[in-house]
Design goal:
The structure is a single chain. Helix content is 0%, strand content 55%. It has 116 residues and is mostly beta strands.
């Protein structure tokens, strides 16, 4: 499975960004899709996840500001990020987890930088 993220960039506090993740080469089965981020000097953390049926979950720090969605036909996952703040600065990674094998696949990441 190949995942490619896009949409990162440099924005100001209070701005919005929409990240996209395109999946290809998927195997038969279902995938839980998620977004993770790694800020400088910190461990990678889960930001948001969405099941194949559309159930979502968010980190407390982004709940109410970020929205994860997916288009199973286009094999794409999105992360709409609103009211960004400098603490959201990180490399954002797309993840796909096969629900049967539990194998994880990762994208290369996209940088999001929020200036104050």
């Amino acid at each position: 499975v190949n995942l490619v993220e896009s949409g990162g960039g440099l924005v100001q506090a209070g701005d919005s960004l929409r990240l996209s993740c395109t999946a290809s080469g998927t195997e038969r089965g279902r995938y839980i899709m998620s977004w993770h981020r790694r800020a400088p000097g910190k461990q990678r953390e889960l930001v948001a996840s969405i099941s194949s049926g559309g159930n979502t979950d968010y980190a407390a720090s982004v709940k109410g500001r970020f929205t994860v969605s997916r288009d199973n036909v286009k094999k794409m996952v999105y992360l709409q990020m609103n009211i960004l703040n400098p603490e959201d600065t990180a490399v954002y990674y797309c993840n796909a987890r096969h629900t049967a094998t539990l194998r994880d696949y990762w994208g290369q990441g996209t940088q999001v930088t929020v200036s104050s």
